[in-house]
Amino acid sequence: MPFIVRRVACAAALLLGLHTHAQEAPPATPPVSNSSMDAPLFYQLLIGELELGSGQVGVAFQVLLDAARRTGDEALFKRVVNIALQARAGDQALLAARGWADTVPTSIEAHQTVVQLLALLNKPAEVPQPLRALLRLAPAEQRQGFIVSLPPLFQRSPEPKAVYGALAPVLQAQTGTLKPAAVFTEARLAINAGENARALTLIHELDKTLPDGDDAMQLAVDLMPAEPQAEALITERLARKPDQHALRQAYARTLLKVQRNADAAREFRLLTEATPDNPAVWLALGAVELDLKHLPAAEAALREGLKRLDTPAPGTDAEVKARADGRRSAWLMLSQLSEQRGDLKAAEAALQKIDSYGLDVRYRRASLLARRGQLEQARKLLQAPGDASDADARAALLAEAQLLRERRDHAAAADVLKAATERFKDDTDLLYEQAMMSEKLGRFDDMEAQLRRVIALRPDHHHAYNALGYSFADRNMRLNEAKQLIEQALKLAPGESFIVDSLGWVEFRLGNLAEAVKLLRQAYSGRPDAEIAAHLGEALWASGAPDEARLVFAQGLQREPDNEALRDTMKRLKVKP
């Protein structure tokens, strides 16, 4: 029906003005085309708009929805849905959208709106019927888009398993040209739902169907932290097509996510060889080498990145900003590197290269002040002003606690974190950090209570499971419970080096030396950290391999000469540095 809703809102004003202009000579007008709108409908629409204008949203909704059903006008249905959404009345919006789909069953937009609202309202069980109708009605060229849009629609659902269970049968029924899109979408929903075995099967299927496509590899990268077997697909593709640099970069970042930093460094080195003019890969390599305590390699990579960032190049505003951000990150890391070398003058000089003054820059300056014995000034530099937002205040408290922890002032760090958890109750990150300080201070009952609180608030917090299990293992107590906790952490974060280290350490405490050495080797190869070196060296020593143990100890000391755990282990075993 030819009808524009906004005209109705002006109808009353137009009627009032008729008498005023009745005596005026009418201008020449084109022939009038009469509307098919009858008087009852006109007044129904008028009343609906007037009620809406006066704030009677519920009445307006009912009146206009009835008019939309009577007329079948899709623009009016859309208007009613928007009225409900603006009033934050999701169920009423869904009611209107369903009325639209029932009244105009051939409307693609109506069925699409129903699907979107069901996703918004977290009602996945009701999606299959309108989704099937949508796929049946839509032109062939649009169906694939509707299918692949499903995961983003449901990405915030608190029940990803229910989403997968509802949508999988619809996706599995797709054939022909829609099959790859359906397999991709089902795999994505399976990953979200934690259905890792099914997701892996679907990724294999998609990779066979599209052996040179990016979709299967994108899924494999996303699945890898939860399902280590997905890594084989990625490495096979890279072996076959080593020029897929975007895939290699995504793989390297995933290796970082699972704390396999040594493996990530290897991939970034390959990227610097293949794409030497890309400053981003040089900076990424520098960051990983710095984390691994490979200071000469880190400095070389960072300076190579800066050299390429400083080369003038035209670009969009976004590219110019990205280059500026890259320079800032590089100088921050070079400052940290110089500080680790004990060259505080060079560290300060690197900071002078940075114009902005964010918390990360203030932290580096505070660290330099603390190294010079000016701890109180350093703490003041990090503290947030009184009018700071909650987010800024929280970040400042975490930074201050980190600074104190690095200075080994665990009591002061615990006080800061106690104040933080009192202000930001049930913040799992703050509670976790507080638990770590409780452990450092020997307050093990407090530590356990805090970690169990974290687990209660966030059952997927793998660090909390690992920390509690490791604490039991390190104190050689409740070893079976320790193993269960660490295994749960490993289920949540498969392959993460520090968790593998914890499992190896509990196996060592249980007397399973062969299994302990195997696990600790795996952890150390992924992340050659000094504390992991201490555990592996002790397990090797107990297994009758003192020469290899000494080599591991020496490597650990080379990276972190002041690591307490490593030095204590060597002292206890009477191994000379």
Written account of the structure:
This is Tetratricopeptide repeat protein. The protein has helices at residues 5-9, 11-18, 39-53, 57-71, 74-86, 90-103, 108-120, 128-137, 140-148, 150-153, 160-172, 179-193, 196-209, 215-223, 230-240, 245-257, 261-274, 279-291, 295-309, 317-341, 344-351, 359-371, 375-382, 390-406, 410-423, 428-440, 444-457, 462-474, 479-492, 497-509, 513-526, 530-542, 546-559, 564-572. With 577 residues, it is mainly alpha-helical. The protein has a domain at 489-577: Serine Threonine Protein Phosphatase 5, Tetratricopeptide repeat (Alpha Horseshoe), CATH 1.25.40.10. It is globular, with a radius of gyration of 32 Å. The N and C termini lie far apart (89 Å).
Q: How much is the average pLDDT?
A: 89
Per CATH, the class of one domain reads Mainly Alpha
Measured by DSSP, the beta-strand proportion falls in under 5%
Described by its quaternary structure, the protein is: single chain
Shape: globular
CATH fold-level topology of one domain: Serine Threonine Protein Phosphatase 5, Tetratricopeptide repeat
Low-confidence stretches: 1-25
**Which CATH architecture of one domain is right?**
Alpha Horseshoe
Work out the helicity level: over 70%
Q: Structural class, judged by helices and strands?
A: mainly alpha
Pfam families: TPR_16 (PF13432), TPR_19 (PF14559)
Keywords: Signal
Protein name: Tetratricopeptide repeat protein
InterPro entries: TPR-like_helical_dom_sf, TPR_rpt
